[in-house]
Amino acid sequence: MDIERLRADTPATEYINHLNNCGSSLPPTPVLEAAVNYLKAEASMGGYEAWGAHQPELNAIYSATARYLNCAESEVAFTASASDGWWRAFLSIPLQPGDRVLIGRSEFQANAYGLMQARERGIVVDVVPNDQHGNIDLEELDKMADGAVKLVCLTHISMANGAVQDAAAVGAAAKRLGAFFLLDSCQVAGQRPLDVQELGCDFLNYTGRKFMRGMRGTGILYARSGAIGRLGQTPFLDGRSATWTGPDSYEYAAGAHRFEFGEQNFAGKVALGVATNYALELGFERIQDRIGMLSARLRDSLAAIPSITICDEGTDQSGIVTFTSSAMKPETIQQNLSTRSINVGAPGKSNAQLDLGLRGLDNVVRAGVHYFNTEDELDQLADAVQQIVRA
Questions:
Q1: N or C of the chain: less Cβ packing under 10 Å?
Q2: Three-class SS state of 278
Q3: Domain residues for 238?
Q4: In the chain, what are the helix, strand and coil shares in percent, each to the nearest 5?
């Protein structure tokens, strides 16, 4: 990769060490310009008129995402966020009292709320444990499976844990059961390849703002065409997702468009298409390799600091690096790093009770390494952490 060119496309790297890419990354200049130019078009000609004049740019998100996910364009829906896409899929799956849902321990809070509400409706939600390495225990999943399982949910990478779960194996288990498979790839999209044919998922959701380097308020929901016909009613309907065919009748829009609303973040939609094509041009294999190299270096550097404990799990680890210190709270470390223009996160167990909560962790410091980061920036973080905890 031409790191100098990539950093020139990311001007903030001149004065910020941005290692919070798993929270919200820095959009490259072409992405920012695409959003701004669309907003200018709305201001100069009107919102509806800009929409009509920019159809190729707006539709680029479908072709780019289909190329990334190895699916049909008709299986792609543009959403407001990863959680928005997850809820649209989840509430469309016809679950009845007594049906079972199997989930992993890496579920994000927004997903967990939906699952807890499902329990209130009489649906049985069971958590599949992890093995000793922090991977979802596939043997236990098979033992827990029976004919009552109608849905399997998995978060591909926990927002507070670097482990990449074996989603393809979980997808194969769901297929054996004849159950829907809903995969939250929010932290995977943009840092690794995603092939829905290999993963075997019926739904896959992610946000645009994280490793994909799009704008906030954007997301993607993939919906397998073969699964759409098995869905029930959805509360998310307007003139984009359905047609009012008569006084007492309506028809869903074809394909994944049934999950879209007519009013959208159109500037963000154009920008996410540009961001997806930007990453595709770089190549996701190269992106994954560089992120893997950089994150491994950071883990080693942090682990060498007295009082620091690396909290990542899993045999396959991602660009998310989490740690704690016996000398200082994670949020205090984050605040001190911020004064040095180093951006990291400090998520707490309220975001991931089945992960951090069950591991007895109130908070962790979280760094999200991206391909435009440099070795010097990682060393700067490690040196700053060492100085902060010493003080």
A1: C
A2: helix
A3: 29-281
A4: 45, 20, 35
